[in-house]
């Protein structure tokens, strides 16, 4: 009996030693092998290939100092935790050249020191967020800097983690910011490490949108590219230079934005743009075909829209596209506020659907429009494409199936809010409003130039283009932001004056379009990913707080006690059986 017990005890000790040895061996091996498994349905903790490539190519240390730390509300803590998890994922790719630190700018108990820190952060480009919290004795205000500073080879870049135009965030803003974290960090790292930014030129000289009306998109693009404005003025060298010893001219800019011109392009200006395309330049065309404007309706209740004589028809036709001289109306549209029948002694202001301003919900899965908000247009025209073997066309934006088209000349009237056109899905198909074209193009000036001009080495005429691309959208207003001249400020592109905030995806559409044209498709793939954020029900959380606190505290204890009791019963039965057998 005694020998049997000693044998069982020795066997148990041997099993214990083997088990501990296996655990130590596994831990030792795991210290050299990094295994990570993302079990979320949307792969929340998996970086896109573009981000992995970017981080993997870092040749020096990028140091990220995050100021979102300390005593924070629940939403801000979630943003902090998501930021930390993202940075950990990036360090898993390159833990040598990516370093980070979290710090609390409000950690100092001395108010003067805290204010000095706030001032320095503001001067560096970070914005604070003021959060009011309710307490038993009243309310308190908390200053939070939801941002980070990136440093690389002596250069610094300020990154705002919470994207909002308001000082007080809400849960939706935090959720959107969490969703965009990978894009924001990848874009910031690209900016701080990229020595040579591609160049984008906004064309002027033909009535194009003035700088204040495209300030928002210019500022956003300026974070990634070098943005400038340029006039051609019949100069052949306005967009390109003659390279000594080269057969053709070299473009000064990688992309050209033509935003809402309203006057004719001279033949020489057309030629300069054409050769810019032939030399591989990318073009974003935002062109109105009809001179329909809402301002003209402020004086009288209707106006007649006629075609602009811009001189761009031949150019676009040569590239396989045509903007028709019509106005597209859509049942899916933005509202307008109009005064109606007086109410008492005052006029009544009411809101009506305004079919002249379609709200276009992207239906394509192309990276330019994938997962962006609806795009707001004003008086757009339809686009047709012409078959060309050397270029492919991709439709990016279309009107809804409930569309009505006004032919030239088009009568524009405010009376449409009372008498809308007969929108019918079966009679009028949806119309193309934005098209991407990629490939090679033949010059619109082929066989149209004097021989001595075409053969001039300084002119360096090119008949066929290098592989290039362009985006055509039949609305110039789509790229313009609202401006308040009295306050000297502009609103973000996509801002809705009735909602009082940014609603539409116009900014994202144009940023994605230029990212795509300039081969920054990695940024588009990051921006277009969607992470499902499962937020708590605030009302239910408050109502059931005590119940869930008890479950979370007592539950693990009860489970542990139950597991210990069952294990004790198991051991008693096992040793009781062993004793009987012996």
Strand content: 25-35%
How many helical elements? 15
Tell me the major beta sheet: 7 strands, mixed
Characterize the quaternary organization of these chains: single chain
Assign an overall shape: globular
Low-confidence stretches: none
| Spatial separation of the terminal alpha carbons | 7 Å
Helix percent reads 25-40%
Mean pLDDT score, rounded? 84
Domains (count): 2
Please state the structural category: alpha+beta
Total DSSP E strands: 28
Q: What gyration radius follows from the Cα positions, in whole Å?
A: 32 Å
Placed side by side, the strands forming the largest sheet appear as 8-7-11-12-24-23-20
SSE topology sketch:
Elements: H1 2-30, H2 49-56, E1 62-66, H3 74-93, E2 98-102, H4 111-123, E3 129-135, E4 138-144, E5 147-152, E6 155-160, H5 171-179, H6 181-193, E7 199-204, H7 215-222, E8 226-231, E9 240-242, E10 249-251, E11 255-259, H8 267-278, E12 282-286, H9 296-299, E13 302-305, H10 313-318, E14 321-323, E15 326-330, E16 333-343, E17 346-360, E18 375-376, E19 383-385, E20 391-398, E21 403-407, E22 410-413, E23 432-439, H11 451-454, E24 468-473, E25 483-484, E26 489-490, E27 495-496, E28 501-502, H12 506-517, H13 521-528, H14 538-543, H15 545-581
Parallel strand pairs: 1-2, 7-8, 7-11, 11-12, 12-24
Antiparallel strand pairs: 1-5, 3-4, 5-6, 9-10, 13-22, 14-19, 15-21, 16-17, 17-18, 20-23, 23-24, 25-26, 27-28
Question: What does it look like?
Answer:
There is one protein chain. This protein is of the alpha+beta class and 582 residues long. It folds into two domains: 49-190, Glutaredoxin (3-Layer(aba) Sandwich); 196-528, no CATH class. It contains 15 helices and 28 strands. The strands form ten sheets. The protein has a seven-stranded mixed β-sheet with strand order 8-7-11-12-24-23-20, with helices on both faces. Helix 3 (74-93) links the parallel strand 1 (62-66) and strand 2. The N and C termini lie close together (7 Å). The model has no long low-confidence stretch (mean pLDDT 84).
């Amino acid at each position: 009996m005694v020998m049997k017990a000693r044998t069982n005890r020795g066997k148990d000790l041997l099993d214990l030693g083997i088990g501990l040895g296996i655990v130590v061996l596994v831990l030792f091996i795991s210290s050299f092998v990094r295994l990570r498994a993302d079990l979320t349905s949307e792969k929340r903790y998996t970086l896109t290939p573009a981000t992995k490539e970017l981080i993997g190519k870092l040749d020096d240390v990028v140091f990220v100092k995050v100021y979102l730390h300390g005593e924070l509300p629940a939403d801000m803590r979630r943003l902090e935790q998501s930021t930390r998890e993202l940075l950990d994922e990036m360090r898993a790719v390159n833990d040598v050249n990516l370093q980070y630190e979290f710090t609390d700018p409000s950690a100092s108990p001395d108010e003067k020191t805290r204010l000095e820190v706030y001032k320095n952060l503001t001067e560096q480009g970070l914005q604070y967020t003021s959060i009011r919290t309710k307490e038993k004795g009243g309310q308190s205000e908390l200053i939070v800097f939801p941002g980070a500073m990136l440093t690389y080879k002596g250069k610094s870049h300020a990154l705002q983690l919470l994207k909002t135009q308001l000082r007080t965030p809400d849960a939706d803003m935090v959720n959107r910011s969490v969703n965009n974290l990978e894009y924001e960090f990848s874009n910031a790292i690209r900016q701080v490490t990229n020595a040579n930014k591609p160049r984008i030129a906004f064309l002027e000289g033909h009535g194009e949108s003035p700088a204040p009306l495209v300030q928002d998109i210019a500022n956003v693009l300026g974070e990634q590219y070098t943005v400038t404005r340029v006039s051609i003025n019949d100069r052949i060298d306005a967009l390109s230079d003659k390279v000594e010893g080269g057969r053709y001219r070299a473009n000064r800019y990688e992309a050209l934005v033509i935003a809402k011109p309203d006057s004719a392009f001279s033949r020489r200006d057309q030629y300069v743009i054409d050769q810019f395309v032939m030399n591989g330049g990318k073009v974003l065309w935002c062109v109105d075909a009809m001179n329909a404007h809402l301002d003209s309706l402020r004086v009288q209740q209707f106006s007649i829209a006629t075609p602009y004589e811009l001189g761009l028809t031949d150019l676009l036709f040569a590239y396989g596209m045509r903007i028709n001289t019509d106005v597209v109306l859509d049942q899916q549209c933005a509202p307008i506020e109009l005064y109606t029948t007086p109410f008492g002694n005052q006029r009544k202001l009411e809101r009506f659907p305004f079919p002249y301003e379609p709200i276009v919900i992207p239906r394509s899965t192309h990276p330019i429009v994938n997962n962006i908000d609806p795009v707001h247009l004003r008086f757009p025209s339809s686009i047709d494409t012409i078959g060309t073997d050397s270029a492919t066309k991709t439709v990016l934006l279309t009107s809804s199936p409930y569309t009505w088209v006004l032919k030239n000349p088009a009568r524009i009237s405010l009376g449409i809010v009372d008498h809308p056109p007969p929108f019918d899905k079966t009679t009028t198909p949806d119309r193309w409003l934005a098209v991407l074209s990629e490939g090679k193009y033949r010059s619109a000036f082929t066989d149209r130039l004097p021989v001595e001009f075409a053969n001039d080495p300084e002119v360096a005429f090119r008949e066929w283009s290098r592989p290039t691309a362009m985006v055509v959208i039949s609305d110039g207003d789509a790229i313009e932001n609202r401006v308040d001249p009295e306050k000297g400020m502009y609103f973000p592109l996509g801002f809705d004056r009735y909602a009082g905030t940014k609603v539409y995806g116009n900014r994202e559409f144009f940023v994605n379009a230029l990212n795509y044209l300039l081969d920054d498709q990695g940024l588009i793939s990051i921006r277009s990913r969607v992470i499902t954020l499962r937020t708590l029900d605030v009302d239910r959380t408050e109502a059931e707080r005590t119940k869930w606190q008890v479950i979370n505290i007592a539950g693990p204890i009860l489970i542990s006690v139950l597991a210990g009791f069952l294990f004790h019963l198991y051991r008693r039965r096992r040793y009781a059986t062993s004793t009987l057998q012996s």
